[in-house]
Amino acid sequence: xxPTEDPGEATAPRVLxxxxxxxxxxxxxxxxxxxxxxxxxxxxxxxxxxxQAVSDYVRDLVDGGxxxxxxxxxxxxTKEGVDWIITRTDALSEFVSRVSDDVLGSVDIDAxxxxxxxxxxxxxxxxxxxxxLHAVPDGGSATAVVVTGGEAGEAVxxxxxxxxxxxxxxxxxxxxVPAVTEGNPPSSDIVLDRAAGxxxxxxxxxxxxxxxxxxxxxxxxxxxxxxxxxxxxxxxxDVLLLVSTDExxxxxxxxxxxxxxxxxxxxxxx
Length: 270
Description:
Largest sheet: 5 strands, mixed, barrel
Strand content: 15-25%
Radius of gyration: 30 Å
Distance between the termini: 79 Å
Number of helices: 9
Shape: elongated
C-alpha cells in the first residue's frame, strides 16, 4: 500500500496490516507535529527505526505528494497528506471503538484483592471483606476464574462468575449534630461509644467534622459523604454518620433511595 493510494479506500485493519504501513503513518504524523523544522533523527528515535529508514519514508511521502520539501530539514505536510492522516485516524478510531465495545465490552472482568498468590487460569472463591471484593484461593459461595494473576494484597482480574457472594449489607447509624445556632453537640462519650461499634466513620458538615476531631475520632469519609456512606453500607460495612442537622435530610434521602438500612439516633441517647 503506497502513499499515492486513494485515502478513502483505507481502513484501520489495512493501516495495521504490516509494519511498513504503520511506520509510514507514524512518520507522516511526526512530520505534521514537528513541521516546518523536522529532525529525521528525532523521528527515528521516537518510532524506533534508523534515520536512513525515516529518510526513505520521507522521500516516498514527498514523491507521493503528501509532504512538500521547503529546504534542508524543512518539510510541510500538504492538504493531501492531512486528508490521508485524517482518513486513517478516523478509521483507527472506529476500529478501536469497535474493539472496546464489541470485544472488551463483552468480557465482564472485575478486580479483586488476592488473599494469597493466584495465577492466570486459577479458580478462586469470592468474598466481601472490609467492603472490598477479595479473591480467595480456597473457594467460597461464589467462584470466578483469574485472568490476571498476582500476589497476596495485589489487585487481580477475575471473570466467569458463578454463584452469589454472601455477605450482609451494613447498617448506618446516623447521629445528628446541631448547627452552631441550634444548641450543644453530643458528648464525646456518645461519639466514642458509637464509633467503637462501627467499621467506618463519616462526617457531613462542618459541625460534624469539628465534633469528630475534638473527640479524637478520625473520620474515614469527609467529602462526598452522601454517596460514600451509602456505598460502604451496601458493601457490608456498618457506618457511623455524624451529620449536621442542615444536611441530615439530604443524607437520609440518599440512604432510602439506595435501600440502605439506617437508624437516626438522638444525640443524647447512648
